[in-house]
Hints:
single chain, alpha/beta, TIM Barrel, 7-stranded parallel β-sheet, two-stranded antiparallel sheet, 9 strands
Amino acid sequence: MTTSLPGGTWTLGDLTVTRFGYGAMQLAGPWVMGPPADHDGALAVLREAVGLGITHIDTADAYGPHVTNELIREALHPYPASLHIVTKVGATRDAQGGWPPARDPESLRRAVHDNLDRLGLETLDLVNLRLGNAQGPVPEPVAEALGTLAELRSQGLIRHLGISNATPAQVAEARGIAPIVCVQNMYNLAHRGDDDLIDELAADGVAYVPFFPLGGFSPLQSSALDGVAARLGSTPMSVALAWLLQRSPNILLIPGTSSVAHLRENIAGAGRTLSADDLAELDKIGR
């Protein structure tokens, strides 16, 4: 049984996805390393997400590593035709839990095949090229790495391409190399550096997918956010998600959780309509 999800749908190339999606990162163990504490609970969250109508799941073979992709396959394969799994390449994991870059052509080809194998797919719906490092975007050329992924796309292994953790200049460079259907960057009420980029992409029909540091909206220690949430009888996270959906129609959400109850809470909260006064008060946070 499905339910109505907040925000409606968006089209990524030829893929129609719900604007409210699900990010699988939190299904892995602490610091995105190792298996979940509750294996069956992780499967239940994935099945609940699809059961509630979510058609956009975000993952990466580096999560775990390999853990989230293996859980997705165990929980959902064979996949419903309506479900679209988005993955990313460009970073791997080391024994200390770091995220060293892996953007040379050989590493990218191996990562695409690893995602295909562990997800049980012949073609990946959308692959984001992860740039920069854990601290954020780093000015660097994207041509070689994106060219490698474009070659794999021409071979039928990838349907669509995106770019992640990128500067506006890198987004522009990438869009000059191959069709880009989404940009996945850090953005929330308190981190508004991509405001102009979001509006530019919206005008061109390109999706923007905000991600957040571990801990979700922990940077948003804001009395304004707390005040609006209290007035609405909601949580700060719910209000922040609702704000994102109302910020621009091209914003797609991928909040993660390892709890079915929290998943339902996020969906309900994101569907709340914020008034003009609410929006004006919240907009002051990132200004």
